[in-house]
């Protein structure tokens, strides 16, 4: 597994960008992704130290992130890893008593590569991403971002 990002929930991407830019110095951003399959907006940002953060905002009030935000929990939502073999990586987590949150589904931000979330008894959430060679493309001009 290769570390990819820390997932951060936010009510909307603009508010999330302002928070991460002002607090930890995130300066480089990818395009925004409207992911109707997973009912979320996502955008990735990178700070000067090289850490990648994924902002996750609700696309609709019925989505999983809307529920998380309404409970005011899991602002730092998950750790994500790129994997070569999703079933093998999932088996490793299952052997450690992680439970799948849902079935694997394609993700727009990973060119349709499958993603799957798992949670431990202590509430650690891990996202596995079947896109081993994926690299985020940063520095989208502000003029191309949605408000």
Please describe the topology of this protein.
Elements: E1 2-9, H1 13-24, E2 26-29, E3 33-35, E4 40-47, E5 52-58, H2 64-71, E6 76-82, H3 86-95, E7 99-100, E8 105-106, E9 114-119, E10 125-129
Strand content: 35-45%
Q: Which percent range fits the helix content? A: 10-25%
- Based on helices, strands and strand pairing, what is the structural class? alpha+beta
Could you report the average pLDDT, rounded to the nearest whole number?
A: 90
The assembly state of the depicted protein chains is: single chain
Radius of gyration, in Å, reads 15 Å
Number of strands: 10
User: Please, how many helices?
Assistant: 3
State the end-to-end distance.
35 Å
Low-confidence parts, pLDDT < 50 over ≥5 residues?
143-147
Main sheet properties: 10 strands, mixed
Apparent shape: globular
- Give the H and E element order: EHEEEEHEHEEEE
